[in-house]
Amino acid sequence: MNCLVNDNSLYQVDESGHISAAITYHEVAPNVWQVDKTFTTSNSLRNQRIVKELVAGMVTYARKEHKKIVPKCPQTKRIIDANPTYQDVL
Known about the structure:
The protein is α+β, with helices and mostly antiparallel strands. The chain is built from two helices and five strands; from the N terminus they run E-E-E-E-H-E-H. It has a five-stranded mixed sheet. A hairpin with a 5-residue loop joins strand 2 (9-13) and strand 3 (19-29). The two termini are 22 Å apart.
């Protein structure tokens, strides 16, 4: 999945160019991002791994920018905690 970044959010757009899912974050300390929430814009998109893909994109972006993540969003926290390869961004 190709994630786009804009205004403290990482998001996915559908084939029409509309945002289909997003993860929001803000900087809480130097080099630390707090992930606030994830959401999909349609109930039909739920349970389709989109949130897992967004979290993977967020982890990749954090690594690229040399940031740590504080996952305040319960979904994000669950996904990061369950994936041993994501522990380096905590």
